[in-house]
Predict the structure.
Amino acid sequence: MNPLRSWKAGLCLLGIIVATSLSGGLIGHRVARRQLDARNNPENWNEHVAREFDRLVKPTPDQATRIQAHLDQAVHELQDIRMETIARSTNVIGRLIGAVDKELTPEQRQAFEAMKPKPADLTLDLLNVEPKPGRKP
């Protein structure tokens, strides 16, 4: 076999391996991200817990109604905690940006501007959080 032809075949095989590895990694990352987002959604958690509780404990219809009210209350509390945590985290990041900005030279500030998150980038959509009814994000 011609050495040039062997080299081309090997290079093509390597290209196929790299392409399939990258596509598999991207697909795996997207699937894992969707699963993580679904797991972190308090409403999905509520539905999952209610189904498992019904399956294992088998409460009476009267008990199920009262227990679901407790679950709903817990989900609302978790959503409030999540919103508060996001607000507090955003405040900490804002203070950090302000403190770092004071330490920089004008040239460094220009480079730092490119790194700083823009207020429009910090939306609840990005964080996968639903605003409470009647509350502005």
In short: Residues 46 and 72 are 7 Å apart (CA to CA). The radius of gyration is 25 Å.
